[in-house]
Fold each of these.
Amino acid sequence: MYILGRGLSGGLRTRVAAAFGITVGSIVHTLAAAAGLALLLATSPLAFTAVKLAGGAYLIFLGTRRLFTSSSKRLRPDPQVKPARGGAGLAFGQGILKTGTICCVAWSRQSRQMEHCCSAALTVTAACCPSGASIIPGTSLSGRSGGQMRDSQDYPLGYSEREARRLAEQGAMLEDLTAEVFRRAGIGPAMQVLDLGCGVGDVSLLVSKMVGARGAVLGVDRASASLHIAQQRAASLGVSNVEFKEADLGEFSTARSFDAIVGRLVLLYLPDPAQVLRRLSRQLRPGGIVAFQEYDMPQTSQVPASELFTQTRGWLLQAFTAAGAEVEMGTKLYTTFLHAGLPAPSMMAAMPVACGPDTRGYEYMVGVLRSLLPWLERAGIATAAQVGIETRAARLRDDAVANARVAFLPRAVGAWTKVGGKAAP
Ligand SMILES: C[S@@+](CC[C@H](N)C(=O)[O-])C[C@H]1O[C@@H](n2cnc3c(N)ncnc32)[C@H](O)[C@@H]1O
C-alpha cells in the first residue's frame, strides 16, 4: 500500500526508493527479531515501554501530518510540479521506518504472548510468577544445531530453548511449594546459599529474595547455556546478589562457606546424590541448612483415570527410568540425607492439582513428555506418531473436563535438616 501510495504521488525514482526502503527495513527487522529482540522486550519493561512509546509517537506524527495536509494535495499530484528534491531519499527512509513500526507492533504482541504464557500457572498454585522470574530474556539459541544448547545424551530433558522455557514455567508452578520448604528449613535474610543444579535460575532467584540484599546465592549447573539464561534473567530483574558457576556436581568443589545448600529436581539425575551432599555439606557453617525438593513421579494420578492419562503417565515413568533418573527421589531424600551423614531430615509433601477447563496441568505433563520424546523413541517405548505430542495436552484436558476428572501431578517432597544443630520442625 505504501509503495502504491508513493507511486501515485511521486515519480519512478520515488517508487523504486520506497520499494527498496521497505525491503531493507524488512530484512533489518527480521534479523533483529531472529536475534531475540522480542525475547529481550519480553523481559525488559523499560525496553518494552520505549518501543511502545516510539511506535506510538511515530503513528501520531503520521496521523497529524495527514490531518494538516490538504486532501486534494494528497490525492492529485500536480503534473507541473516535479517531485521534490530528496523525495527518493525520503521515500527510502520512510520505507524503513514503516516496517519498523509494523515490527514494533508485532514484537509487542510477541512479548505480551510470552508474558501470558509464563503467567498461566497451574490452577492449584495460582502462582503468577511471583518472583517475576519466569520469562526468559533475549537469548536466541536458534542458530545452534537442532535448537539444542548442547549434547543432551546424558540429561534426559535436554537443553533446547523450549525446555528452558518449560523449566521457567515449572518454576512458576512450584514457586510457592518450594518457598514453603525453604521457609520451614529456616532460609532467611543475610544467608549465603549454594543452589545445586540451578538450571535457568528459578530456585536461585527465589532464594535471592529470601536472603535479601545482605545475603548471596551461588547457582551451579553443568549447562553453560542454561547459566547464560539464568544470568540474563537476574540482570533483567535487577537482582545483584546471585552469581552462577558452570560445574558438574560430581566434581564441583569450592573453598567458600555457606549457610545453606539447596536444590530442586536435581538429585534424581545424580548417580550418587548422597556422595555429592556429603562432600558439599563440609562447606556448611555450624548450624548450616540442607534443603531439597524432589518429585515422587509414580504418585501422579487421575481420578477417575482415563486410558490416555494412564498411557501418558506410563510413558513419562518409562522414559525417565530408561534415562537413568530416580523417579522416587522425593521419598528417597530421607535415606539420601542419612547416607550423606546428615541428621534425619524433616519432610513435607504437596502436589499441584489439575482440574477444570483452565488448568495448565496437562500442558505441563505433555511439556515434560515432549522433552523426553528422544528417549521414548530411542528406548523403543513409543513413536512420535503414537504420542501425537501437538494434540495430546488438549486431548487430555478435553477428556478430563468432559468427564470431571481431577489429576494429581507428581508429589513434590521437601526435606531439610541442619548440620551440627536440630532440624526445624
Ligand atoms: C530439572 S532441572 C532443575 C533446575 C532448577 N533446579 C529448577 O528447579 O528450576 C535439572 C538441572 O540439573 C542439572 N544437572 C543435572 N545433572 C547435573 C550434574 N551432574 N551437574 C550439574 N548440573 C546437573 C541440569 O543441567 C538441569 O539444569
Amino acid sequence: MKEAEVIIVGAGPAGVACAVQLKRTSFDVLVIEKRRVGGRAWQAGAVENLAGWTSLPGEQIAAQMNDQLAHWKIPVEFAEVTKVTGDRGTGILPVENHGRDVRATRYILHAEDGPAFESKVVVIATGVTPKVPEVAPPLDPDARRVYYNVLDIPYCENKRIGIIGSGDVAFDYALSVCDRHNVTILVRSERLSAIPLLIERAESKPGIEILRNHASNRIEPFAEKVEVEIAQTGKTLTFDYLVIAIGSEASLPLIEGIDRIPGDELRLAPSLYVIGDAAHIGFRQISIAMGDGLRVAMTITENRTRHG
Ligand SMILES: Cc1cc2nc3c(=O)[nH]c(=O)nc-3n(C[C@H](O)[C@H](O)[C@H](O)COP(=O)(O)OP(=O)(O)OC[C@H]3O[C@@H](n4cnc5c(N)ncnc54)[C@H](O)[C@@H]3O)c2cc1C
C-alpha cells in the first residue's frame, strides 16, 4: 500500500491548490486522479472571473496545473478511489453529528483492486458528476453520440450538435463549438438560467439556435445519429451528437459511516476534508475551489504546528 502524510483525491483546481500549498510547507503529499490533471477546468471555454486575468481559456488553466504539480515534484497516481475507510476494524463510526466523533487515526483509500493507499490526513476534491435525465441512456464513458462533456465529442466539423440545458455550462459548451458546428440549445421551459452575458453572446452567434419550451421526452442514440423527441410538440429532432448539461451533483467516493456531506462544511471528521465543487451546491467556481484548497492546506499546517 502506498503511503503519504496527506493524500488528496482529485487533481482539479481544489486538489491542486491544496497540494501545492502543502508541498510549500514541506508536507509529503500524494495526489490521486482518476482521469486527467486539471479537472473540469478543461471544459471551460473562456474563464473571465479569475482575478488578475481578463480572459483565460480553461484548457490553459488546466494544462498549467499539470506543469505546476511537476514543478513542485508532487507525485500523481492515476486511479479511481472508490471507498475511504478507517483503520481500526470498526472503520469510521457512524455518528449523528456529521462524523465529528470519528475514531479513525489512519484512512485507507480503496481503488478498483482493493485497499491501495494509506494516510493520516485525506482531502477529497473529487468535483461533480453530471445529472442524467430519466429519458437518457445511463452514464457510460464509452457511450457514442450522447455526451455530458463537450470535449468528448470526437474532433469533426459542420455537424449538428444538440445541447440540452439552460445554464452557464450549456451556453459555455454552445459557444465553444459554434464556430465549427451548427448548435441547437434545447431549453425545457421559457426560462434560461445562464447569466445574461452568455445568453447575449449565444444569441448573437449565427451558429447557435435556442429553442425554448423544448423538453425532451425521449433520447435515443443510433449508429449515425441521435434522436430527441420533444414533449411539447411530439416532433423528433435529429442531431449528429447530443450533449446533456442539466446540472451536476457531488461525485464522492463511498466514505464509510458517513452518508451525507453537509453543504459548505469543509471538515467531515478529524483529518478528513471535502473541498471544491464536491462540497458546495451553487458555488461551483474555480477561484472558490482553489480557495478551499488553500484554506484546508493552511488548516492542516496549523494542526501540525499545534499537535505535531
Ligand atoms: C463548461 C464549464 C465552464 C466553466 N466556466 C467556469 C468559469 O468561467 N469560471 C469558473 O470559475 N469556473 C468555471 N467552471 C467551473 C469550474 O471548472 C469548477 O468549479 C472547478 O473545476 C471545480 O474544481 P474542483 O477541483 O472542485 O473539481 P473538478 O475540477 O471537477 O476536479 C475534480 C477532479 O477529481 C477527479 N476525480 C473525481 N472522482 C475521483 C475519484 N473517485 N478518484 C480519483 N479522482 C477523482 C476528477 O477526474 C477531476 O479531475 C466551468 C465548468 C464547466 C463545466
